[in-house]
Amino acid sequence: MTLQFGFPLTLGQVAPDFEAETTEGSIRFSAWARESWVVIFSHPRDFTPVCTTELGEAARLKPEFDKRGVKVIGLSVDPVDRHAAWAEDIRQTQGYALNFPMIADPSRHVSQLYGMIHPEADPSVTVRTVYVLDPARKVRLTLTYPPSTGRNFLEVLRVIDSLQLTDRHKVATPVNWEKGGRAIIVPSLSDEDAAQRFPQGWQADRPYLRWVDVAE
User: Fold this and answer.
1) Catalytic residue among 9, 33, 51, 159
2) Is 51 a catalytic residue?
């Protein structure tokens, strides 16, 4: 049988719905996600060393995701029973127990829907993909990491902070922005409209580069 490979999801695309078995029982993704932000990230297989550290870090940071109204869900092509055994290894070696669901995808159904299998890499396992979805299930961030490099979940949190801020205000965030830092008024907002939106004023280095402090 020839495997069919999906294309990775792209920014602005609505992430497909699916049903799956997880370490927390059967889910329909749309019902599980409800109207939350979601981070969904895939692992090549269970008992891989880099992913073991990543899952421990995601578990450690779950309170930070919770503060932002973000649900986290992992995926691996192995079955649920192997996920359960791996979860115990994660607890013992990383000091944090798995506290979010892990999708079991032995059929590769979800992996193919989400373009997480790249035939040029290895057609039998998922690549290490991260998607951030907004409450409408639209893709707002895509990342694909090489097997040898662990993912940076602090960067994922930083991007979520930026997305949530820029969704609330007509701003963008500059290079190396951190929560609480100055933002940039988007060029599509005229000075007249900006004065209504930002009565505190702003600093203009150029007509198109207007810095503003935005209350969280």
Assistant:
1) 51
2) yes
